[in-house]
From TrEMBL:
Record keywords, A-Z: Cell membrane, Membrane, Transmembrane, Transmembrane helix
Name recorded for this polypeptide: Monocarboxylate transporter 12
Topology with respect to the bilayer: Multi-pass membrane protein
Molecular function via GO: transmembrane transporter activity
Lineage: Eukaryota, Metazoa, Chordata, Craniata, Vertebrata
Reaction catalysed by this enzyme: guanidinoacetate(in) = guanidinoacetate(out); creatine(in) = creatine(out)
Protein species of origin: Anseranas semipalmata (Magpie goose)
Family: Belongs to the major facilitator superfamily. Monocarboxylate porter (TC 2.A.1.13) family.
Transmembrane segment boundaries: 12-31, 81-100, 106-127, 139-163, 169-189, 252-275, 287-308, 320-339, 345-367, 379-402, 408-432
Highest taxon above the source species: Eukaryota
Domain Major facilitator superfamily (MFS) profile, first and last residues per copy: 12-434
UniProt cross-references to Gene3D superfamilies, sorted A to Z: MFS general substrate transporter like domains
UniProt cross-references to CDD domains, sorted A to Z: MFS_MCT12 (cd17424)
InterPro entries registered for this protein in UniProt: MFS, MFS_dom, MFS_trans_sf, Proton-linked_MCT
PANTHER family: MONOCARBOXYLATE TRANSPORTER (PTHR11360), MONOCARBOXYLATE TRANSPORTER 12 (PTHR11360:SF318)
């Protein structure tokens, strides 16, 4: 297949968007709905908040920690193979979880195995959208990532109904069969070759020459094999380095640190929103309905922010739109402890869900703006990898604070301040970069204004009409020595 000059921005790309949409339903929406099982697990196994919260933490952590593995399989084997394999692993983990006899069993099956399966699907599917779209990239990502919100809106009440009808074991078994749809999503991911993806190594890799030689005898093969081995090792090392050379980019480093704090702040809310609502007197169905509201508004945030940031007036301000959305979610978390009834929690779900959908849509877009399309798959693997430790640590830490203080206030305040710090850090980094660029531009203009036009003897003329005395003396000596020759 001949490489294309650029992304098609349509055609089969819309099927890629549909496939990524289904992937986000089967991964992120299912992960969010695990919080509905929280109270069931706590009651059945008789454990506290902190120990039960490790289930959700391990799922999220394994999904993000193994994201580079998903990118590696996608880059070197096939995106289709990686997503199908991930679907099988995730389904197996959920089915095995339905037979759990302890929390440790759930840690391994629902946490590690299901999370690993989600990891093999999530980042490769998102990266494929970036390869098929350029001009309408944010809109495509908005539609694809809205699967998380739509899935949460639909699955939250469905999962609650399944738990009531078939217990938590039957609900997990049905979810295991549902997640097998990831294999169908993988079949849609048709690979595409772009010219900018072709990275050349020194020497032979710079030539697009593939010899079609006749059969060689064993003697010639034995002579050439050491050379082939050395050359292939050099090429492999070079390609591996080029695949991750974006790690040294200052812009990506700042984004990575910002992602760490953002991930710490956003994870506990999806674990503790339902238990917090139940603790203030909200019914089980109303608590599940809060998750549904959050999910459906998440969709609106995905699509509207994706469409808006594709407009010409906002396209170059995508970073600021991203940090604004993260900061607004942080403010929502700060106000959550004072919301003590269902009518007040509904506006919270609206606001938090909208801005959550907004920044989730912009994560791959901002990453692509920083590293470029050719490194997007590997960069997304690293970005989602950075989510792993915060996702692992934050829910148990929040649960420990609840067990220690007897309220959710400290947990939600810590989440809010973490997300606001993430937004502030990225804002200051962007402002510092802009100031540095302005300073360099002014220095460049000063340099151009002092360029010499021509000299005549000891007199030198410049654009400004003035010249330093030392420069004039140097030019006088130089021109006189030249005329003496």
């Amino acid at each position: 297949m001949a490489p294309r000059a650029g992304p098609p921005d349509g055609g089969w790309g819309w099927m890629i968007v549909a496939g990524c949409f289904l992937v986000t339903i089967c991964t992120r929406a299912v992960t969010r709905c695990i919080s509905i099982f929280f109270v069931e697990f706590q009651a059945y196994f008789g454990q506290d908040y902190a120990r039960t919260a490790w289930i959700h933490s391990i799922v999220d952590c394994a999904t993000m920690l193994c994201a580079p593995l998903g990118s590696l399989i996608s880059n070197h084997v096939s995106c289709q193979v990686g997503i199908m394999l991930g679907g099988l692993l995730a389904s197996t983990g959920l089915i095995l979880s339905s037979f759990a006899t302890s929390l440790e069993h759930l840690y391994l099956s629902l946490g590690v195995l299901t999370g690993l399966g989600f990891a093999l699907c999530y980042s490769p599917a998102i990266a494929m959208v970036g390869k098929y779209f350029n001009k309408r990239k944010a809109l495509a990502y908005g539609i694809a990532m809205s699967g998380s919100g739509i899935g949460t809106f639909i699955l939250a009440p469905v999962v609650q109904l399944l738990i009531e009808q078939f217990s938590w074991r039957g609900a997990l078994l049905i979810l295991g069969g549902f997640v097998l749809n990831l294999c169908v999503c993988g079949a849609l991911m048709r690979p595409i070759a772009l010219k900018e993806d072709r990275k050349t190594a020194p020497g032979l890799l710079e030539q697009d020459y593939v010899p079609e030689a006749p059969k060689q005898d064993l003697k010639q093969l034995s002579i050439c094999s050491p050379l082939i081995k050395a050359w292939s090792h050099e090429c492999l090392c070079y390609c591996s380095w080029k695949e991750y050379d974006f790690l040294l980019m200052p812009g990506f480093m700042v984004l990575a640190v910002s992602v760490l704090f953002m991930a710490y702040g956003c994870s506990p809310l999806f674990v503790y929103l339902v238990p917090y609502a139940l603790s203030v007197g909200v019914s089980h169905h109303q608590a599940a309905f809060l998750m549904s509201i959050l999910g459906v508004i998440d969709i609106i945030g995905n699509i509207t922010f994706g469409w808006l940031t594709d407009r010409r007036c906002l396209k170059k301000y995508r970073h600021f739109c991203y940090l604004f959305a993260v900061g607004m979610d942080g403010l929502c978390c700060l106000f959550l402890p004072v919301l003590q009834n269902f009518p007040l929690l509904v506006p919270f779900s609206f606001t938090f869900g909208y801005f959550d959908g907004a920044y989730v849509t912009l994560i791959p877009v901002v990453t692509a703006d920083v590293v470029g399309t050719s490194s997007l798959s590997s960069a997304l693997g690293v970005v989602y990898f950075l989510h792993a430790i915060p996702y692992l640590v934050s829910p148990p830490v929040a649960g420990w604070l609840v067990d220690t203080t007897g309220s959710y206030t400290a947990s939600f305040l810590l989440c809010g301040f973490s997300m606001i710090f993430s937004s502030t850090l990225l804002c200051f980094a962007r402002l510092a970069k802009k100031i540095k660029r302005t300073h360099l531009r002014s220095l460049t203009n000063d340099t151009h204004s002092k360029q010499h036009i021509w000299t005549n003897g000891a007199i030198a003329y410049s654009v400004t009409g003035e010249l330093d005395q030392k420069d004039a003396e140097f030019l006088a000596v130089d021109t006189s020595s030249y005329s003496n020759r």
